């Protein structure tokens, strides 16, 4: 066979390499199939996740309002704490807003004068006690002398005058002893008074509450009695018992017949106009203001909340006994609302897809809102999402 014919029958090197590596083609086919399956799955499955909650129906049932009035929040227990003695302020231990308990130290006054009076009174006690002991010894000696004189008189040796003199000395020393005992008691009382003066230099909280005003500073003089001229303070701090907060309103005397103790009310603070606070009429003050033609009513709050502060303005609706039921509204979490342009919208889950709804907000209540329209009770509304929400896109619900 010729050389040219042998060259024709020879297999090329590329063909021999391809025959030796058939797995390359198999791998390429498998990867292509996997990519096709993933692509189809991505196209058929939702691209974002969402969390949903059901809208809740809210039916307003209340009492009819028979009277409206305005007033202020006032505490039943409010005190300007003052010192019982006149002294210089050494230390103020509280600031505005501090919460204190009954007996806590509010301020410390200069007690140096009271301490000196205490030392003087204690020294006087010791002097009087020493005098008392001396008189006791003298009285014992005088009684022995009286006994000797009486024995000598019985023997006829001494005179009646000597006996009378000895008896007079005994009675005199007894009177002096009683006087010395009274002096000791007086000195001990002065000691107790001086100790009380020292204790009075420590100003304590008369009840538990919150400090709303600090009226004195270290270095100033304070006194329970105004000295005039503005150089002496009469108060140190102002303390308010927050548990005693109530509402005081002025009711026109023409409508006072509609107010009675125990009547239910609904209060609204000017600072929180959407927060309705329940309460009851505690008392109606039995006197009228002839200048304003009003009668004061005090209202007990049904809740205790740190948002309620003294002297806040408040509006009060006095409620009657009947019942008023309004149309049901829908309540949803506030985070479900979205602002798109000039519209407030929510996204509702319907058959695996999102439906955009425009809604009208009736009332906002902390972390929830009441809707007047746009949503029905029981519908699932989106509160969280893993991407951008659009009308009609498919989503999956995250449990």
Describe this entry's structure for a reader.
- With 399 residues, the chain is α+β, with helices and mostly antiparallel strands.
- Helices cover 31% and strands 36% of the residues.
- The chain has helices spanning 3-9, 13-20, 23-44, 112-155, 160-200; strands spanning 48-54, 56-58, 61-62, 65-75, 78-81, 87-92, 99-100, 105-109, 202-204, 209-214, 221-222, 232-233, 237-240, 245-252, 264-269, 276-289, 294-301, 313-319, 324-325, 329-333, 338-340, 343-350, 353-358, 360-365, 368-373, 380-385, 395-397.
- The strands form seven sheets. It has a six-stranded antiparallel β-barrel with strand order 4-14-17-16-15-18. A five-stranded mixed beta sheet has the order 9-8-6-11-12. A four-stranded antiparallel beta sheet has the order 2-20-25-24, with no helix packed on it.
- A hairpin with a 6-residue loop joins strand 15 and strand 16.
- It is elongated and about 145 Å long.
- The two termini are 80 Å apart.
- The relative contact order is 0.19.
Average pLDDT score:
83
Q: Indicate the low-confidence ranges by residue numbers.
A: 37-43
Major β-sheet strand ordering: 4-14-17-16-15-18
Estimate what percentage of residues fall within beta strands: 35-45%
Helix- and strand-based class?
A: alpha+beta
Q: Report the principal-axis shape.
A: elongated
The total count of helices amounts to 5
Distance between the termini: 80 Å
Whole-number total of structural domains = 4
CATH architecture grouping of the largest domain: Beta Barrel
Which CATH class of the largest domain? Mainly Beta
């Amino acid at each position: 066979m010729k050389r040219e014919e042998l060259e024709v029958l020879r297999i090329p090197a590329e063909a021999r390499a391809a025959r030796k590596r058939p797995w390359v083609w198999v791998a390429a086919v498998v990867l292509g199939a996997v990519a096709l399956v993933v692509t189809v799955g991505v196209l058929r499955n939702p691209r974002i996740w969402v969390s949903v909650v059901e809208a809740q129906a809210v039916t307003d049932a209340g009492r009819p309002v028979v009277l409206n009035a305005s007033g202020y929040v006032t505490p039943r227990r409010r005190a300007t704490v003052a010192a019982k003695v006149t002294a210089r302020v050494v230390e103020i231990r509280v600031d505005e807003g501090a919460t204190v308990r009954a007996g806590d130290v509010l301020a410390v006054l200069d007690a140096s004068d009271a301490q000196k009076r205490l030392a003087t009174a204690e020294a006087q006690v010791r002097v009087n006690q020493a005098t008392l002991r001396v008189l006791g010894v003298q009285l014992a000696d005088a009684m022995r002398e009286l006994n000797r004189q009486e024995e000598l008189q019985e023997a006829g040796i001494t005179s009646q005058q000597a006996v009378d003199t000895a008896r007079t000395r005994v009675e005199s020393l007894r009177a002096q002893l009683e006087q010395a005992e009274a002096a000791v008691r007086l000195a001990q009382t002065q000691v107790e008074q001086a100790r009380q003066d020292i204790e009075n230099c420590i100003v304590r909280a008369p009840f538990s509450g919150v400090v709303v005003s600090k009226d004195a500073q270290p270095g100033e003089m304070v006194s329970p009695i105004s000295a005039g001229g503005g150089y002496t303070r009469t108060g140190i701090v102002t303390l308010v018992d927050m548990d005693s907060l109530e509402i005081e309103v002025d009711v026109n005397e023409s409508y006072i017949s509609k107010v009675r103790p125990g009547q239910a009310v609904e209060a609204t603070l000017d600072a929180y106009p959407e927060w309705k606070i329940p309460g009851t009429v505690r008392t109606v003050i039995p006197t009228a203001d002839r200048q304003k033609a009003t009668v004061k009513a005090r209202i007990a709050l049904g809740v205790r909340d740190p948002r309620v502060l003294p002297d806040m303005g408040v509006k009060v609706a006095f409620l009657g006994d009947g019942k008023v039921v309004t149309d049901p509204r829908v309540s949803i979490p506030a985070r479900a609302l979205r602002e798109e342009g000039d519209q407030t919208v929510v996204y509702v889950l319907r058959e695996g897809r999102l439906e955009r709804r425009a809604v009208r907000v009736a009332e906002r209540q902390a972390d929830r809102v009441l809707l007047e329209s746009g949503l029905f009770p029981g519908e699932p509304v989106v509160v969280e999402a893993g991407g951008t929400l659009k009308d009609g896109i498919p989503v999956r619900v995250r449990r």
